[in-house]
Amino acid sequence: MRNYETVIGLEIHVELKTQSKIFCSSSAAFGGEPNAHICPVCLGLPGVLPVFNRKVLEYAIRAALALNCEIARFCKFDRKNYYYPDLPKNYQISQYDLPLAREGHVIIDTENGPKRVGITRIHMEEDAGKLVHQGTVTTTAYSLVDYNRTGVPLLEIVSEPDMRSPEEARSYAEKLRSIIQYTGISDCKMEEGSLRVDANVSVRPLGSAEFGTRTEIKNVNSFRSLHRALAYEVERQIEVLEEGGRVVQETRTWDEVKGVTISLRSKEEAHDYRYFPEPDLPPLVITREWVEEVLRSLPELPDARRERYMSEYGLPVYDATVLTATRETGDYFEACVRLHPQPKVVSNWVMGELARLLNATGTEISASPVRPEQLAALLKLIDDGTISGKIAKTVFEKMFDTGKDPQVIVKEQGLVQITDENALRAVVREVVAGNPKVADDYRQGKDKALGFLVGQVMKATRGKANPALVNSLLKEALEK
Questions:
Q1: Do 173 and 106 touch, CB atoms closer than 8 A?
Q2: What is the CATH code for 421-478?
Q3: pLDDT recorded at residue 142
């Protein structure tokens, strides 16, 4: 690979979370009984006409502005003609030569520092249905069609071929998802298909200005799969070239189980789709006043929020990046800081114990059983000496499991920290007397011995002893 350069561009499809579909009033909600969210319009039955959903345009403008694009003053819809069982009209209403937005960009973090990745265009279109495959090769195999997704509004965001590694492609996709989530126009749940990635990848000799022949990897459904698929495809293309072969322009799919890309069909070009202007929809004229209004409604976006966390809260770049990756995480963090104004302490708990339990249970932070005010209350119990940091972790787990307030759990479990010097001094005497060799080791300058003795005191008090007081009392006893 040292003799080749990788060239990657991504096409990212984002489903918009409008209540109704793009050209009809059928529900755009995810799921439901198969073919329950359909009507004559989204099925393309004879005699029907599409009516454009204005909310789709508003959401599309929000995305385009958040991605630093130029918004067109005039755009139109086109018919993209092709046959597939999940496309009931045998064409898709999309945009071709006059899309909504062009010439945007996002900044991604790479091992060599920040990098600008260009966005060629953003256009609106309708989603297709979904094929549900049944059976196996050893039984009767067949496919069913669910048209619920047909007509759900989509944005297609097409990048420039500016990425030079699978790592950069993954970073771009993750950054774009974060920005879109912040705008509130989509939940971007890859597991539900509301964000899907097609990747165009080619390789060329180092120093060459001419692009190699690209292949397209369709419908990658996770960032991990995107990285793995691109890494495999780069190696496959280099191997073809090294053996004197020729890379064929084609569409491929990623087999997650086998870890390989598989050829599907030859790659279509624009002329294969026989685009022509959609005759049933008028062009769109977008006023500058409306664009400015939408711009003013945008929330603080991830990059700006990250910079604020570093300047206002004094957080390191890693903490600020993790906490602003999703809007919900940042909101949770800020709600807690307002109640417990120690940003770094809050950051450690949100990125540590909370993130661990959320990941282990597959829970979104917006559905966390531990509310920000409960975490703030737990941190206050640590600060005022009611419980130790170690006990706090146990309490937090019980809070997560039960949803109870920390004060209730501490009282129920009898976890109040022991701060009575006389009571602890008696335990310290017993521990020192029971470990004479370790005590002598400490007196001879072996500082690690103190840690062992502290551990024994904590064990004897079931973790309830105040650690600072234990250290002080141990040193006092050992120096006699």
A1: no
A2: 1.10.10.410
A3: 83
